[in-house]
Amino acid sequence: MIKPVSDYAANGDEVKTWSGIKYADGTTGDVIVSDGTHSVDQEPALFTPPHLYATHRFGKAVSFGFGLFTPYGLGVNWPRTWDGRYIIKQVNLETFTFNPVLAVDLAQLLAGQEDPFLHFSVAVGYMGNYSRALLDKNTDWRGLAKQMNSFEPYPVNEADLDGIVRMEGTGWANSFNAAVHLEIPKLISAGFQYRHHFELKYDGTAEMEMPDWFTQPTMGGAGPAKGAATSMIWPKETDGTTTMYMPTLYNMGVALLVIPNLVIEADLFLEDYTSYEELKLEWGCNDESPPCNIPEDPTPKDWTWNYQAVIGAAYTLQNDLTLRLGFGRVGSPVPEETYDPVLPDGERTLVTLGAGMPFLGMFRWDLGYMFAYWQGEKTGATKLVDGKEVPVNDAGAPSNTNVLNGRAIGKYTTMSHILALTIGAEF
Question: What is the DSSP string of 378-392?
């Protein structure tokens, strides 16, 4: 069970443009684009990712295992009217991995029925990855409405010019993993695991809502604006596809077993996200005749390598109660140039507590809690390109005269509380 608590501390400006617009009440004014002036909290959420693990030993040297777990997940849900609503309103990503594994203890295989002084195992597995995703954001139609202002008076409430795009889809990808493990009983244990990257291609349906101002008569008649807008109205529903690139993982760890009943472990996880260069949404109606002309410009990502370093200890008391404590640091693969509120990431601090104990002979319970804290920032910094000052990060910046948007500059802070309960049985 995961409960994230996130907030956005705005640190941008209001940019006025297109002065002299005539509103429906006869007054004039400016279109205001907010680059981040209203701080806000994310809407509360609760996630319950499942997990299931099973193992069976054939003799003393061969084992078969199966795992069902959720390696990747993302939940973002900002208010519908927040400053970054044209970048993202809501995104949910769930990934379920089905992972059968076969392991062979080579040292035990060579020793036969004798107990070797060390164990050296190799394992390979298949990973079937199923994912479902939801993306929801507003679309900004103020630019087009301004161009039509000579025909139809501009609305008093600019929120009436917000549209909505909501896409849901599912994907499947195949991959594999491999691992080696070395253990000298009562002394040391070490392991290395490789998980191959995979590409998730999502196919789904997108629902689109145009602002009523474009589709209904205003000021007593349909007017030229309605006819002009009708020729470019997006469909209410269309097919959509996109692809996400999941990283290659290199996981390694070492545990000290010298002190009776005490295990001290250190782990390092490396993630190669360099294949995730862009995110592009493609729309089926663009291939129809006539095409709907929905933009398919990719959003740059250019993610990099990432790391996670953790240390932990577990101590078993005389009554078989095991107590656990851990601490970790996690980097971020998101560069400053492409940081955005779709994934308001940052370097994380992790603190974990846990306990476990057998009961009723064949059963065992394990309870764990993790507190995670991180903060990231989308700055308004600029750089010099061809003699002009341009934003270092232009996510949400106007792409043309008809798309105003807003960059949602500011700090993003997240605290996440994760509670896990596992019930095991041995038979």
Answer: E---EEEETTEEEES
